[in-house]
Inverse folding.
């Protein structure tokens, strides 16, 4: 959302009147079908999403492969500046999420901010919470604004799976440290000979399994799909749906959150995601199981793929946004984080988060016009939908008297999802929130619900409300 007025010194009320905007209130329903609900609280500023963008999400090992993660994050920040016309000194703070950190840029938010030309006087920090890291970045920004410590915060995230850090073994690290301290030649030679042993030379790869359970997420997804009796065909059908919808959204110009990226040394400018590949269920059915062989149902086709990408969004108090001449996209109304058993319920975060965030805001699932849920696996999405429709699950595991009720599939991830668009772990949350806001305006809805699962059995839910025209 570009800034539409740039009138310094004007009051928020004056600007809002000039633009015909509603000031500090969400009390008027936008549509006849929407409930009349007031979320504003005395003394607490409304928090708005001014704009959210992302560079194209690409499969790892493709066009971004020669870059570094802070390059991606820097260009997301630059894309946000260009899209909004934001003056860099108007930002109070920057927070980015990431999961697998590049050791050379441990605080990648700071490095990306400096690289994008933000003042060294603007603080920045990095958060990590698995697949909901940029969700955490957004809610961190909300907390800063609600507390009054900031008025304008950039939140975002980045992930770079083309070059993950691989360490030497722990044995080798200990030997190298000892060698650095050794003073006599015989001692040094002894340490060097130990360093040449196979056990010392074996590399240490980034963990792909849950630390607490030792199980990969793919194995957990396979077991979850089996527990809810979700067939391979159902999963392939859902994955095919995701790719079809993403392709149609891209072709119809709906993915307006994407900003072009001219990669240094490459002739072409990257304009769109490269993982969207519409396919038939029959073609998908030919792939072999990826995790539990030979009888598993999770395959490369019905799983999200390793992705490089970055995102960024501008979060502000409503008063500050209007004072600066911005027309916000949406109110960021309320959110919850949940956690559950990381072994048998690792990916069921949306099932637990959805009713909690609805109850917290006083909304019903029928009040929601737009659902944007993270798609880690087709089986994970379908398991959540089935869990929400199960009275037994609600009574047995959620201490509820009746089922949550699943989202209406006709409102669900209509512009594709992580299965097709890609899933850079640290960046997906901003995509979800921005897409929800964009869909609300395009489709004429008032409330959107964003939900996601994450490693460790964590989940997140957020209510987004369309900003009035």
């Amino acid at each position: 959302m570009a800034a539409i007025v740039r009138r310094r010194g004007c009051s928020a009320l004056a600007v809002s009147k000039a633009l015909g905007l509603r000031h500090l209130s969400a009390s008027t329903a936008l549509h006849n079908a929407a409930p009349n609900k007031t979320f504003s609280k005395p003394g607490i500023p409304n928090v708005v999403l001014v704009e959210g963008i992302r560079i194209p999400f690409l499969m790892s090992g493709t066009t971004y492969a020669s870059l570094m993660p802070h390059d991606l994050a820097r260009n997301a920040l630059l894309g946000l500046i260009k899209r909004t016309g934001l003056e860099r000194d108007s930002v109070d703070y920057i927070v980015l999420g990431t999961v697998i950190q590049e050791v050379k840029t441990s605080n990648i938010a700071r490095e990306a901010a400096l690289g994008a030309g933000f003042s060294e006087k603007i603080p920045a920090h990095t958060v990590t919470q698995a697949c909901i890291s940029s969700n955490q970045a957004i809610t961190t920004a909300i907390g800063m604004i609600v507390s009054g410590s900031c008025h304008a915060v950039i939140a975002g995230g980045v992930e770079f799976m083309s070059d993950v850090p691989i360490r030497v073994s722990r044995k080798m690290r200990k030997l190298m440290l000892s060698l650095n301290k050794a003073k006599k030649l015989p001692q040094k030679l002894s340490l060097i000979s130990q360093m040449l042993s196979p056990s010392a030379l074996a590399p240490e790869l980034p963990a792909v399994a849950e630390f607490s359970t030792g199980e990969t997420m793919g194995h957990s997804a396979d077991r979850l799909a089996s527990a809810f009796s979700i067939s391979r065909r159902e999963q392939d059908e859902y994955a095919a749906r995701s790719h079809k919808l993403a392709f149609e959204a891209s072709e119809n110009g709906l993915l307006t959150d994407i900003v072009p990226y001219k990669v240094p040394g490459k002739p072409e400018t990257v304009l769109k995601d490269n993982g969207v590949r519409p396919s038939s269920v029959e073609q998908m059915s030919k792939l072999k199981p990826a995790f539990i062989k030979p009888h598993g149902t999770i395959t490369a086709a019905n799983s999200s793929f390793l992705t490089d990408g970055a995102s960024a969004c501008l979060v502000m108090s409503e008063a500050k946004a209007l004072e600066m001449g911005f027309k916000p996209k949406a109110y960021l109304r309320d959110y919850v984080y949940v956690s559950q058993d990381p072994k048998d319920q690792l990916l069921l975060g949306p099932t637990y988060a959805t009713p909690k965030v609805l109850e917290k805001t006083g909304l019903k699932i029928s009040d929601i016009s737009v659902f944007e849920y993270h798609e880690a696996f087709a089986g994970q999405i379908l398991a959540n939908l089935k869990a929400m429709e199960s009275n037994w699950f609600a009574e047995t595991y959620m201490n509820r008297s009746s089922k949550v009720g699943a989202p209406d599939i006709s409102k669900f991830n209509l512009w594709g999802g992580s299965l097709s668009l890609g899933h850079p772990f640290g960046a997906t949350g901003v995509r979800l929130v921005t897409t929800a806001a964009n869909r609300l305006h395009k489709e004429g809805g008032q409330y959107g619900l964003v939900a996601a699962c994450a490693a460790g059995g964590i989940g997140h839910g957020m209510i987004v409300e369309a900003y009035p025209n």
Summary: The domain at 217-254+333-466 is CATH 3.40.47.10 (Peroxisomal Thiolase; Chain A, domain 1). DSSP finds 16 helices and twelve strands in the chain. Residues 152 and 316 are 4 Å apart (CA to CA). The mean pLDDT is 91.
